[in-house]
Design brief:
alpha+beta; elongated; five-stranded antiparallel sheet; disordered N terminus; 2 domains; 232 residues; 17% helix; three-stranded antiparallel sheet
């Protein structure tokens, strides 16, 4: 019998397709054999697999094939600066080689004019969401942003500010100086203590504090950008 390193076969039809795998490389033979399953002998000392029978070897091969087909992407670390469409953005969450997108905070607000949050502190129903969505639609193509937790673009959450080194009350001690700007106050998407009339905002002095939804503040968006849209 011709020895091969791996077997893929259909139990009911007894169709055997041989394939060889060498280390991390994925090389598959095209020869097809019509054999009876009872005639197959499996020797794992030749293949290097830990499996002791043909069925186990098939599972082993399947997992290795999946690994070979998995696409890898550029990894980004929290705090990195990227320039997209001539605008600066900052990575606010680590993104591994298996992630096809990266989450970014825009360096500057989407407009030079402050606006109110709206009549409700729930971001999904706020006028700020409408403004951010309108900006995103005019700035990016349909295949450049990815929907994550219901949003392709949004405002930052206070939990993300904490991950960036801010405390519950200020960002002045964060290692990322761009978490606040002395020139403007900007809204977050987080309700203030579950009230319907206030949200958290980052003020010009770096403090993270309550602000009424009727007050004026800037909109500094967060986007989930597909890595395929980033120029190398």
């Amino acid at each position: 019998m011709k020895k091969i390193g791996r077997w893929i076969f259909n139990h009911s039809l007894g169709i055997i397709i041989g394939g060889l795998i060498f280390g991390p490389m994925c090389v598959f033979a095209t020869d097809t054999y019509l054999l009876n399953a009872d005639d197959i002998e499996y020797d794992n000392t030749q293949s290097g697999s830990l499996a002791t029978d043909v069925e186990g070897a098939l599972d082993d091969l399947s997992s290795k094939a999946d690994a070979c087909n998995q696409q890898t992407y550029t990894a980004y670390s929290k705090g990195q600066e990227l320039t997209i469409n001539s605008e600066k953005y900052y990575v606010i969450a680590d993104s591994s080689t298996s992630d096809d997108y990266v989450t970014l905070l825009k360096e500057t607000p989407i407009s030079n004019t402050a606006s109110s949050y709206g009549s409700d502190s729930t971001y999904a129903s706020s006028s700020t969401k409408t403004a951010v969505d309108t900006w995103a639609a005019s700035t990016f193509s349909n295949n450049e942003l990815k929907e994550v937790n219901n949003y392709e673009a949004r405002l930052i959450a206070v939990e993300e500010l904490t991950d960036l080194g801010c405390t519950s009350s200020n960002c002045t001690n964060s290692t990322h100086s761009w978490t606040y700007d002395s020139n403007y106050t900007y809204f977050t998407m987080s309700q203030y203590n579950n009230t319907t009339t206030s949200v958290w905002a980052v003020r010009t002095d770096g403090s993270v504090a309550e602000i009424a939804t009727s007050s004026q503040a800037m909109l500094r968006p967060v986007i989930n950008l597909l890595k395929s849209a980033i120029s190398s």
